[in-house]
Amino acid sequence: MATITPSQASESFQIISSLRYEPALPDVLRAQPTDAYPDPLRSPYYLLPYHRERLLKAAECFGWSKAARFLQQDVESFAKHLDSFIPDRTKPWRLRIVIDRDGACTVEVNAAAPIDPLSLLLPSGMNQTSTPWRVTVDSQRTVPSPFTTHKTTSRDNYTAARLRAKITSPQDPAEVLIVNPYGEIMEGSITTPYFRRRRSTSTQVKMDQEDAEPAWVTPPLSSGGNAGTTRRYALAQGFCSEQAITVAELIDGEECWLSNGVRGFFRGRILLKEPNA
Predict the structure, then answer these.
(1) Which pLDDT score, from 0 to 100, does residue 60 have?
(2) Which of 209, 244, 245, 261 registers the highest number of CB atoms within 10 A of its CB?
(3) The sheet that has 105-111: what strands, in order across it?
(4) From the centroid of its chain, how far is CA 192?
(5) What is the DSSP code (8-state) at residue 5?
(6) Which string of DSSP letters, residue by residue, matches 179-237?
């Protein structure tokens, strides 16, 4: 992992995690096997245990002992803390959990756009009914650091990448892929990307037919991207595996999946060429 520079260590920032409060989620989960979703509470908070653990790892990385102690509470207690910020439990909300170095936790709550609750579960196929997001590649390179591995309020690199991609609003159905100095895809500016690829192999052992088939892959954390919650969910349940993906390997027009803790899983399409004026 990259080291934290003195300027970064002294910078005023908070650790954050964004997730969806979805009242319909518990009903959707009742039809799922108990080991297919990582929340024994099956609460309306999407992937809540992963968000708590993600924040805890960030606090430990930055040496925030007070924040780490707060985040070591059990998931049920954490959910009760979040409950106090929900204005109406019958509606979906976008929560932005913000924790400072002293362990103070605030939650910013905004109305969430309606989605099919099934999109919060792992994709079972490429849904052809939804319009894919436009996915482009950042024209500049981003150096990996703890501020790309962990989600914080220090997001200037991501903001700049979105501006270069002409994404002007969080509501725009568009994403830009962040690229490290080696030309590897790190992540999306607000999502984890998944690409359909044949599994790579570094051995001479002949792969069986199943392994030779294309499968979904996502960039490894060694490429410098964020340890996202939906990414962890997809890996844990076998939807995808890790594989480094370079910009040179992307195919113009290819379809991909994107995911994050507010929208779940949704389609994207890679656009490498500038659209005609």
Answers:
(1) 97
(2) 261
(3) 15-21, 93-99, 105-111
(4) 5
(5) P
(6) E-TTSBEEEESSSEEEEEEEPP-SS-SPPPHHHHSEEEEE--GGGT----HHHHHHHHT
Phi then psi for residue 58, to 5 deg, are -65, -45
Q: Which of 70, 85, 115 is the last residue of a domain?
A: 115
- Across 138-170, b (16+ Cβ under 10 Å) vs e yields beeebebbbbbbbbbebbebbeebbeebebeee
Residue 53 shares a structural domain with residue 88? yes
Q: Specify the DSSP class assigned to residue 117.
A: G
**This prediction's pTM:** 0.90
pLDDT band at 199 (very low <50, low <70, confident <90, very high): low
Q: Which amino acid is at 48?
A: L
71 close to 99: Cβ distance less than 8 angstroms? yes
CATH number of the domain that residue 175 is part of:
3.20.10.10
CA–chain centroid gap for 99, Å, is: 18
